[in-house]
Design goal:
Largest sheet: none
Distance between the termini: 11 Å
Order of helices and strands: HHH
Helix content: over 70%
Radius of gyration: 17 Å
Strand content: under 5%
Length: about 80
């Protein structure tokens, strides 16, 4: 059994999982929930509102970047083994 290939596949699976988690859950859903909470608050904080809008707008890019950080080294390990 080639451990480089196994570790490469592990990195690829972790990259996909972490990319989905960051892109969908943390940025998209978390940003929308925080925007709703800001509208329900007594005082709206403009900085937090802008930060959450940016999180929602950049959620796809942040998910892809997170995926690629782990997926590409894993793919390289699989190809070299």
């Amino acid at each position: 059994m080639n451990w480089k290939a196994v570790f490469g596949v592990f990195l690829m699976v972790c990259g996909i999982t972490l990319g989905l988690y960051v892109g969908v859950w943390l940025c998209l859903i978390g940003g929308i929930i925080n925007i709703i909470e800001q509208f329900q608050a007594e005082h709206i904080n403009a900085f937090i509102m802008a930060l959450n809008i940016a999180k929602v707008m950049l959620s796809a890019m942040l998910g892809w970047v997170t995926l690629l950080i782990l997926f590409l080294p894993g793919l390289d390990l699989v190809k070299k083994s």
